[in-house]
Specification:
The complex is a heterodimer. Helices cover 69% and strands 3% of the residues of chain A. Chain A has 26 helices and 2 strands. Chain A has a two-stranded antiparallel sheet. Chain A is globular. By secondary structure, chain A is an all-alpha fold. The N and C termini of chain A lie far apart (77 Å). Chain B has one domain. Helices cover 77% and strands 3% of the residues of chain B. The model of chain B has no long low-confidence stretch (mean pLDDT 90). The chains are: A mainly alpha, B mainly alpha. At the A-B interface, strand 1, helix 5, helix 6, helix 24 and helix 25 of A face helix 5, helix 6, helix 11, helix 13 and helix 16 of B.
């Protein structure tokens, strides 16, 4: 008999915390707010660890039903939870990283107004994210999916008196809704053809289906629609535009939601639906192309950003692109591997950046930083670990996961691999650029500059920062940094590939999920190496090592270029930018995509709705016709107006008169029918 | 007479009786308010008996009472509810006490008349949902018009008379067509009884029915379409809402509009399945236009209340779409949207009214930054916005999802077009929310606005709780709705098989 683990507790615990702080937090002291928020979030983490401890004794997948939710006709969706290797990995990443960021936030947000509100939202986010990860059907997943969007909306707009923050929150929600629209249609297709949204039932249905050859088929359509949803949530082309703006939120939020967890939901969803994608090669190819292009596109923008958080935001988009590239070449476990290491190092990068921002009193422009190494030793060293990791320097975590993706991509197409390598070069470059600009050279900030942090609330107490005011963050913020730094260094060792003497235990762990139902014929058109991962022939290993050498070379080149431009010859970047002219401006202005969307979609919708629909059709056509009609029957409306005297008795008279006429007519009709 | 047969009469007429008693109560405003609250709460508590003791497995109408009222013409006092109407009755009795609370301070002239009108209106509204005799139905149907027009015309804002006349004329004229259809049926069947007429039609005992049915269908449909309101006969609604007092708007959006969609469910589908199917394509197109058009026009409204009014047109489009999808999911969803919209939009109108009382304007540009000065108000507002946007785990989602899923099964393209509604609703509501609550306070007056009063909170809390419960435990409602939906669709299976036979 399989044990009952009460999986429902994991999402519900943070929900309780959110509810308590939301309803009563206004009256709580900061310490109480923190105890509630951390207590419930920590309890969820502890429960997840317990589940992990008992995991080996469970049958897979382990499903627990809690309660029925919707029943209409033949359709039903329940509150039920689904645990397998994939959801366990997600569960541990979300609760673990989430809990660390909760701790960090205590220090970061201590002096801000709306303290209880912040932690209530953060707990709420955990609830929805854990629901998303543990759901056993697509509809419950959709609850989490939309719910994390809500939490993101609330937290991006946390400093709501700032117009840019409020707008960014709204933009995030609406762009996500566009993705959700696609997701919903995908769900409708599943209901129509499989009669259910339950994972087990859907997957059972799908596993009996053939691989779709031509471009369009049921599974291809579902796959593409799910990808629309994933592109919204995980900020892929063309729906990535909300994520850079989302940096308006407090930095712990950027770390938790917009780097480590929520934005990876799309990757998780695609991986979860791998049975569908594996039978839809065209959808898979689209995923790979979108991922590859996004990885490259965002990395180029990241090169020219000066705001430290914006660099990290574009970097996140780019790294998510890698994950989708992996999904697109059916290397789902590699995608999840990178998702995990990315959660460590990108969470860390944001937290460390937050520590920097905290130290220099809200300044986010790297041009006004520099030389911070000596003031912020802990931040510097942890950030260094993260930077080397994301750049792909061996043997850090990011190296293994990124390399796994690139190798698997190269088995499908060298184009993916080539772009991936070039992106790796860019990644290394912009990350070391950030590193040099922030921590090396001379401090370039003005005395006591910057007021972005907590802007508008006016509760931030460190008012008197000069250079001397630059201070290392409190311990409560440093502990999460250190833990994440350790994870960023060693977190990849669970997935050392065979070519480097390891056995990729991570891939083996996930293999029951991803290799259980490989369709017959799925390997056609794909070289066999792309499929088999176990012991490889010696020639394959040598080849893999060669590819690895290239990607390490790319990382090193990026480091060298950044060193040259931003450490050795700091006057060069300006000259290069001038030499590039308009191209540089296009990149620095993010290729004007936001402006393009505004011209193409926003403005026509608002203007058209105002002048054509509202003033045009509503007022000038329909109402005009009605009023003309009423005007012609002026005396009728006059008569009615007299009735509007408010005199109830006269009204009653009208009713009585009307009723009398009607009844007389009835009687007459009744007698007529009686005669007949 | 057992409670089960008397309960509908009690629930329906307690408000009216209360209204009549109010005539005798001296003009002490406080007493009048309290008395009205007690009466409406009593009606609510009694109405809870209906769903609680409803027999899920039993098809047809329950709590029936059928007495001869007038022998010639053959008019019966026939009342009864099924899984659709039972919840609409409860929705009405749920919203009316909240209307009393929200009018507590805002109505200070002609208080007595106001509450009398409100109570009469409640009886008429409940009557519409419980009447099973077509004459009785028509009587209640028209009876709702007068108190509502009075609420708008007497207690409304600036252009109240124009709005009241427009409302009255629009719906009155449309109702004439329904009356004609009802009378034709009476002449042929010799009864106003819904069940009798339905059976007569099903058994082919109505002479000349096939020739007349398209016109009869349209007669009913026009009356209902105006009430819903369906594009392009919707323009009375924004005006009526903007001028109406808060309680009027709550009942207008919350309940009155549902008379139209309820009528379509009960009469268009119930009596004319073949015509319904035949006409479904263009009706669904109108519903889709309503969803998208209503949302787009809502988006650009400078007036908060008008915005919510246009959003109602959009939401009610979902209801019509679901009804004419002829799928169980669609019908379940349509009914659920009716209830959810009643709760959420009712609350949104109360919230709009709350700010009107403080600022005497609904203009969005006059507001801004209110989250700083009125945080609790802002929180309630956000909650209702989210419920209206259709956030999962709140009430709006369940209905919209079921409607769209059902529509998609029936006609995929319509489902896809309808699903764009999830994007539009986020656009117009969140944009409005941002302009009203976020940013800095731009008008000094707004710095001193008091947050919610006790009465206002008492009126809002129930809507928030119900919105949440409906989203988390929709089965409470769906358990009764689903059998009704399946029952309503049973004739359609026959229509289909007939088509196949041919």
């Amino acid at each position: 008999m399989t044990p009952h683990l009460h999986l429902w507790l994991i999402p519900v615990l943070p929900l309780i915390g959110a509810a308590i702080n939301c309803l009563l937090g206004r009256r709580f002291s900061r310490r109480t707010v923190v105890s509630v928020a951390l207590g419930f979030c920590g309890a969820a983490f502890a429960w997840a660890l317990l589940v992990a401890a008992r995991f080996p004794s469970l049958g897979m997948p382990h499903v627990e039903n809690l309660a029925p939710w919707i029943r209409a006709g033949n359709f039903q969706a329940d509150f039920a939870f689904y645990l397998d290797q994939l959801s366990l990995v997600m569960l541990l990443v979300v609760t673990g990283v989430g809990f660390l960021i909760h701790i960090y936030s205590v220090g970061y947000m201590w002096d801000e107004g709306g303290f209880f509100r912040f932690f209530s939202y953060l707990n709420l986010f955990m609830f929805f994210m854990l629901t998303l990860v543990l759901a056993n059907n697509y509809l419950l997943m959709f609850i989490g999916w939309e719910g994390v969007g809500l939490a993101s909306y609330l937290l991006i707009g946390f400093w709501f008196t700032k117009d840019s923050a409020a707008s960014a929150g709204k933009k995030a929600f609406i762009v996500n809704r566009i993705g959700d629209f696609g997701f919903l249609i995908g769900l409708f297709l599943m209901i129509k053809h499989f009669g259910s949204l339950n994972f087990e039932q859907v997957f059972r249905n799908v596993s009996g289906m053939e691989v779709e050859k031509a471009g369009a088929g049921l599974l291809t359509s579902i796959g593409l629609l799910l990808m629309v949803g994933a592109a919204g949530k995980s900020a892929q082309i063309p729906l990535y535009v909300w994520l850079p703006d989302a940096m308006e939120g407090p930095t712990p939020v950027s770390a938790l939601i917009h780097a480590a967890t929520m934005v990876t939901a799309g990757v998780y969803m695609v991986a979860r639906s791998h049975i569908i994608f594996e039978r839809a090669p065209f959808a898979l190819m689209v995923v790979a192309i979108i991922g590859t292009l996004t990885a490259l596109f965002a990395a180029t923008i990241g090169v020219a950003q000066t705001d430290i958080k914006k660099v990290l935001a574009y970097s996140t988009i780019s790294q998510l692109g890698y994950m989708f590239m992996a999904c697109g070449v059916a290397a789902f476990s590699a995608a999840i591997f990178h998702l995990m290491t990315h959660a460590f190092f990108k969470g860390l990068l944001f937290l460390a950046a937050g520590s920097v921002i905290h130290a220099v009193d809200g300044e986010q422009d790297m041009r006004r930083m520099g030389g911070l190494r000596q003031y912020l030793p802990w931040t510097f060293w942890t950030m260094t670990a993260a930077t080397f990791t994301i750049a792909g320097i061996p043997p850090l975590a990011g190296f293994f996961s990124k390399d796994e993706i690139l190798w698997r991509a190269s088995r499908v197409s060298l184009v993916y691999w080539g772009i991936g390598i070039f992106t790796a070069l860019l990644t290394s470059f912009y990350m070391f650029r950030l590193w040099f600009l922030t921590f090396f050279g001379e401090y370039r900030g003005a005395e006591g500059s910057g007021a972005e942090h907590g802007a508008g609330r006016g509760f931030h107490l460190h008012g008197d920062h000069g250079r001397r005011g630059i201070h290392e963050s409190p311990t409560v913020m440093l502990v999460p940094l250190v833990i994440l730094a350790v994870l960023s260094v060693i977190g990849g060792w669970v997935g050392v590939p065979g070519s480097l003497g390891g056995s990729n235990r991570f891939d083996k762990f996930l293999s029951p999920v991803f290799r259980a139902t490989i369709p017959a014929g799925a390997n056609e058109g794909m070289p066999p190496e792309a499929r088999t991962e176990g012991p490889e022939p010696a020639a394959g290993r040598r080849q893999e090592l060669a590819y690895t050498a290239v990607s390490v070379g790319a990382a090193a080149l990026g480091l060298f270029l950044a060193w040259l431009l931003y450490y050795r010859r700091p006057q060069l970047p300006q000259q290069i930018a001038e030499a590039l002219g308009s191209f540089y401006h296009a990149v620095a202005n993010k290729y004007y995509v936001d402006e393009l969307y505004a011209i193409l979609f926003v403005k026509p919708l608002v203007d058209g709705s105002t002048s054509i629909l509202w003033h045009g059709i509503d007022e000038n056509v329909i109402d005009a016709a009605f009023n003309d009609g009423a005007y012609n029957a002026r005396h009728v409306s006059d008569a009615v107006r007299h009735m509007q005297s408010g005199n109830i008795r006269s009204y009653a008279g009208w009713v009585a008169a009307g009723a009398a006429v009607v009844i007389a007519y009835m009687v007459w009709i009744g007698s007529m029918s009686g005669i007949r | 007479m057992t409670l089960d047969s008397a309960i509908l009469t009690l629930v329906t007429f307690i408000p009216l009786a209360g209204g009549l008693l109010l005539l005798l109560v001296p003009r002490r405003d406080r007493d009048i308010r309290l008395f009205s609250l007690v009466i409406t709460l009593l009606a609510f508590v009694l109405s809870l008996h209906l769903p609680v003791h409803f027999h899920r497995a039993q098809p047809g109408f329950q709590y029936e009472i059928d007495k001869q009222w007038i022998s010639s013409p053959n008019i019966h006092y026939h009342m009864g509810v099924d899984g659709f109407s039972v919840w609409l009755v409860v929705l009405t009795t749920f919203l009316t006490p909240l209307c009393v609370l929200i009018s507590w301070k805002s109505i200070h002239e002609r208080v007595k008349e106001f509450f009398i009108i409100l109570l009469i209106l409640e009886t008429a509204l409940i009557g519409v949902f419980t009447a099973l005799d077509l004459f009785l139905f028509y009587f209640f149907w028209e009876a709702t018009l007068i108190p509502m027009a009075l609420l708008i015309g007497i207690y409304g804002h600036g252009r109240r008379v124009y709005a009241a006349v427009k409302f009255f004329l629009y719906t009155m004229i449309a109702s004439v067509f329904m009356l004609a259809s009802i009378l034709w049926l009476y002449v042929k069947v010799g009864s106003f009884d819904f069940v009798t007429i339905q059976n007569a039609i099903r058994n082919g005992q109505v002479g000349n029915f096939l020739g007349a049915a398209p016109w009869l269908f349209l007669g009913f449909f026009v009356a209902f379409a105006v009430k819903v309101p369906l594009f392009p006969v919707h323009t009375w609604l924004p005006d009526a809402h903007v001028e109406a007092p808060t309680a009027g708007s709550v009942l207008l959006a919350g309940v009155l509009l549902k008379m139209g969609t309820y009528g379509m469910l009960r009469f268009n589908l119930g009596l004319f399945p073949e015509q319904s199917r035949h006409n479904a394509p263009w009706i669904m197109v109108l519903a889709l236009i309503g969803i998208i058009y209503g949302a787009l026009v809502a988006m650009v409204q400078p007036n908060m209340k008008k915005l919510v009014a246009y959003s109602s047109i959009s939401h009610l489009g979902f209801v019509v779409l679901g009804i004419f999808s002829f799928t169980t999911a669609g019908l379940n969803g349509a009914e659920f949207v009716m209830l959810a919209h009643g709760v959420s939009t009712g609350a949104l109108f109360m919230l709009a009214g709350i700010i009107y009382e403080r600022r005497h304007t609904y203009e969005i540009r006059e507001l801004g930054g209110l989250a700083t000065t009125m945080p609790i108000y802002a929180a309630f507002f956000l909650f209702m916005v989210l419920s209206s946007v259709g956030l999962p785990l709140l009430n709006g989602f369940i209905g919209e999802f079921l409607v769209l899923s059902g529509t998609f099964q029936a006609r995929a393209v319509y489902g896809i077009l309808g699903a764009t509604g999830v994007i539009w609703s986020a656009c117009y509501l969140l944009w409005m929310y941002q302009r009203v609550f976020f940013g800095k306070v731009t008008h000094d007056v707004n710095n001193t606005l008091p947050d919610l009063s006790g009465h206002e909170r008492a009126a809002l809390w129930p809507t928030a709780v119900v919105a949440l419960v409906m989203g988390v435990a929709p089965l409470i409602w769906l358990n009764l709705i689903d059998p009704a939906a399946q029952g309503a669709l049973a004739p359609f299976a026959q229509v289909l098989s007939k088509v196949v036979d041919r």
